[in-house]
Design goal:
Blueprint (H helix, E strand, L loop, with lengths): L6 E6 L5 H13 L3 E6 L9 H8 L18 H7 L2 E7 L1 H9 L5 H8 L4 E5 L3 H5 L1 H12 L3 E2 L3 E4 L5 E5 L3 H13 L8 E6 L4 E4 L2 E3 L6 H12 L3 E6 L11 E5 L3 H11 L5 E4 L6 E3 L18 E3 L3 H8 L5 E8 L3 H11 L4 E6 L11 E2 L1 E5 L4 E3 L3 E2 H15 L2
Parallel strand pairs: 1-2, 1-3, 3-4, 4-5, 8-11, 8-13, 11-12, 13-16, 16-17
Antiparallel strand pairs: 6-7, 9-10, 14-15, 17-19, 18-21, 19-20
Bound molecules: cytidine-5'-triphosphate (CTP).
């Protein structure tokens, strides 16, 4: 349904996986999409344009000019015509050229002219895929807002086993359906998200921290951005990267810095999601010099930090939505309810450490969402990106 009538430029490059592109093309056509194939010169060594034009019902474009009559193919027109550009398979060479704007064939010029979202399905040998230059190029392409459809792990054409096999055509179709299925429900909304842990300084080399990875907060930021929101992501120290230009990232370290940034961002926001694991206490008198070891016991006196969620809850206007998280080990629902009320939240996402695969460090999460009207929904354990989709869906319903 989602792909019906969509105009797709399918870019095919010189990889053995080009044979799968024929099947991908067939699936697109079956779904009702209109497909224009653009193939690189090397791509034609692996699959014939005759097969592709028969399947797509359109002549395949490869050169800037048609050889016999000199007709010029406009990459600009093609780039503007497309609702999406899918490059599958994408070789290391094409990925490198895309990342650096080396426009020496029709496919790359189309890519550079395209205003449509671009989906790239790499296909190559495991060592080529793992090479830092390939990874760096993919990172560059991500930072330009392109979508990388990660290759699968399995047997490669070289008979080696590893990561590099082009994702299966069915999965690529699912990926695009998911993209077009999003409702852009947060278009033009401004969302503030706190994420990650905080570090509370003890002395120049030590801090009090926690195990938060920031993955849930970053997944939320991406889900909001994919739904059209402008995101301010205030994050403690994490090893994660952001991939969308509509995510404005503010890096902070301590709870106090996070508090300052959140208070400054909230007045112009439509909603805030408090996903950070903020330290509740910090050393009362951090030392400017490294604390020396002595034979005595050591007592570290802590003072309470400000509660960011509660502060935003106090200043919240009627047209703003505030979402919190609760991490509980016992009496989870009652504790979460009490937090929601105390902090004036609209709904709270409960992670219970009583559930396996939930909370810190995992890539999955299992949550229950409790709303201020008393409604409580328990979700299955799923990847954090899908948990983020669930939260964004509920948030959107509050913001219509
Ligand atoms: N939170 C916050 N600022 C703090 C502490 C917590 O913004 N100083 C937010 C968290 O981001 C989360 C919610 O408040 O959205 C609940 O956090 P949690 O640590 O579970 O609750 P606390 O209020 O700290 O309660 P406790 O640690 O006693 O369970």
């Amino acid at each position: 349904m989602m792909l019906k009538g969509k105009k797709i430029v399918l870019g095919i490059t010189g990889s053995i996986a080009a044979y799968k592109a024929a099947y991908l093309l067939r699936l697109f056509i079956k779904k009702g999409a209109e497909v224009q194939v653009v193939i690189t010169p090397a791509g034609k060594e692996f699959i014939t344009p005759v097969t592709l034009s028969a399947l797509s019902g359109k002549p395949v474009v490869s050169e800037f000019f048609t050889a016999n009559d000199g007709t010029w193919h406009s990459h600009v027109d093609l780039g503007l015509w497309a609702d999406a550009m899918v490059i599958a398979p994408a070789t290391a060479s094409t990925i490198g050229k895309m990342a650096h704007g080396v426009a020496d064939n029709m496919l790359i010029t189309c890519y550079l002219s395209s205003k449509a979202p671009v989906f790239i399905a790499p296909a190559m040998d495991l060592d080529m895929f793992a090479h830092p230059s390939t990874q760096q190029n993919l990172e560059t392409l991500r930072s330009y807002g392109n979508y990388i459809i990660e290759p699968g792990i399995g047997e490669l054409a070289s008979h080696l086993e590893g990561k590099g096999r082009m994702e299966e055509p069915e999965r690529i179709i699912e990926y695009l359906e998911h993209y077009f299925g999003r409702r852009q429900s947060l278009r033009e909304k401004k969302i503030v998200i706190t994420a990650g842990p905080t570090y509370e300084k003890i002395d120049p080399v030590r801090f009090i921290g926690n195990y938060s990875s920031g993955k849930m907060g970053f997944a939320l930021a991406e889900a909001c951005a994919e739904n059209g929101a402008e995101v301010t992501l205030i994050t403690g120290p994490v090893a994660l990267k952001t991939h969308f230009s509509s995510i404005h990232r503010i890096d902070v370290e301590s709870a106090e810095e996070m508090y300052e940034a959140a208070l400054k961002s909230f007045p112009t926001a439509d909603a805030a999601i408090m996903c950070a694991a903020v330290a509740d206490y910090s050393p009362e008198a951090p030392s400017d010099v490294k604390i020396k070891r002595t034979a005595d016991d050591m007592l570290l006196r802590l003072k309470p930090n400000k509660d960011i969620a509660a502060a935003l809850g106090q200043m919240k206007r009627d047209d703003q939505i505030l979402v919190g998280f609760a991490l509980e080990t016992n009496d989870a629902v009652n504790n979460a309810l009490a937090k929601m009320n105390k902090k004036n939240l609209d709904f709270i996402v409960l992670n219970s450490l009583e559930d396996e695969g939930a909370g810190f460090r995992y890539d999955t999460n299992k949550v229950t969402i409790i709303e201020k009207n008393g409604c409580s929904t328990e979700y299955d354990s799923k990847p954090k990106s899908e948990v983020a989709d669930d939260i964004v869906e509920l948030l959107s319903s509050y913001m219509q």
